[in-house]
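Tutorial handout. Part one gives the primary structure; part two gives the three-dimensional structure as tokens.
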Amino acid sequence: MRQKVQEQAQPWLSGWNALTGNGRAQLGAKPRPLATVIRGDVPGQNFAQFYIDVARAYQLALRWKVSQDTRYADLAVVFLNEWSSTLKEVTGNADRFLAAGIYGYEFANAAEIMRTYPGWAPADFARFQTMMLDIFYPLNNQFLTIHNGTQYSSYWANWDQCSMASILAIGVLCDRPDIYDEAISYYKAGQGNGAGLQAVYYVHPGYLGQWQESGRDQGHCTLGIGLAGAFCEMAWNQGDDIYGYENNRFLAGAEYVAKTNLRDGTGAFYTMPYFTNVNKQGKQAELSTGAQGHRRGIWESVHNHYANRLGIATPYTALQAIQMRPEGDGGKGDELGFGTLTFTRDPLPTAGRPSGLTARLRGTQVVLSWWGCTGAQSYSVRRAERAGGPYSVIASGITDALTFNDTALSATGVYHYVIIAATASGDSAPSSEARVSVAPELLLQWKPDGGARTPVRLPTGLAKNTADFTVSVRVFLDSAATWARVFDFGSGTRRYMMLTVRNGGGVVRYGISTVHGFNEEGIDGTSALATGRWVHVAVTLSGTLGTLYVDGVVDGTNAQMTLTPADLGETTQNWLGHSQFPQDPDLQGRVDDLRFYSGALGATEIAALAKA
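Part two.
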């Protein structure tokens, strides 16, 4: 930053001018510390006084870091010291958790800049660390642990996200790897709506990742992008690539929110794909137009990481960054601001190549999605019948969205796909190859001699990236307890696919959900599974048609199944005879010959398995 500003290079200079021209970044201000910060619709609410001083401390620290003018450092230290020697608690209604999360991570970032300043006495720095550990961290931890005494899905994504960001920042500032790891672990495995898989509620073809709050309003969506972006950047600076988690899932969310709030060439907002969101707050059946077009200065960090660090195209995030440039003050305290100054990077000197290609069988087609690369003008899809080629072009001139449905399939075909970008200097290198077999393939077979008592734990991630599928298993029930599982593949109650011997209605049921059961899609049979004998059960999905078989005979169907195993992410708890829900009983009986296939076996094949 300092070098770019000294060279008067753009857009760094405009970002610097936005900082130096902002009222909160000036000398002469005095801190207004409080013993008690209150946020929420309660008497005495005063949190604005706090976030204004947090912003002043950060902006003064940033001015010092770029200019090396110690007057700004000295004043930043005054703000940090006054608050750390005065503040005793953050309180209010449930909004106290927002205050502790948002302003907690922001204050920690201001202090992190200043920790190398010789003028900040070690004892004063230690007192600031103690304040963060004793006042902010307990509230952050409490929220992620018990969600204010409610169910995990009771709060929208941004509540989790601000608490995670604060915990991560405190872990860094206080040299506490245990606290830092707590935040990373929650991002990957947390059960609340702000963890990585839940915050991006559903990824549409072409990697448009519908945000968890997209059915609520757009202001909270952009808030979530800002919080998640801060989290990813802090983790990146510690050597952890959360940006890339689950095939750049955060970028998918950022592109969706960015595009939702941009207008197309006709002046209308883009038409967006939308998957109905059902959660503790109810059902959001359509994209919310509340505050659509919302502008927030949080896009530079996202765009510059993916495009200018990695060479991944960010078409809609880039447009948002351009229209907000230079990013200014965080306004009402929701973000630190000034990202044009702090995050802009020079573009990579050469074009990259497409990446992240997935190819998933859905009925009679293979659905391909990929990440584009900077410098690309269009993309072509190439297919071969053996690994490594030779490839033939099956589609070209693709610009947006980056997805293609291959319908020219043989029933026994095995296909290998790559994507190549057309750039100004010629074709790019190909993407990594993705393989699909149209005929079902056995991915896992578990077959103990004579069956095994349950529960049994199966390998992690056994269903990852599978769309159409078959699960086949034999079960011998001593009893058919309500909600006892034949199998349950998932990662806690947040995401699972399961088969229960008897649901609340008394019949066998297959179900799949990505939100604690609130959006469960399922197939009901006609009765509970029989006891006292071996029963063969199978579930298949072909396109949107789900079929449940009992003893080789169709026992139930659902032609509107949208969710697939690929939507579950990395399932870490894959069970036979045990549920993700702790209140459900374990299966009483034995299981045998569990088979998991990519692709849907036909009725004749299922009947043959049942008789084998």
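Part three, for discussion. The chain has a mean pLDDT of 98. The chain has three domains: 2-343, 355-437, 441-611.
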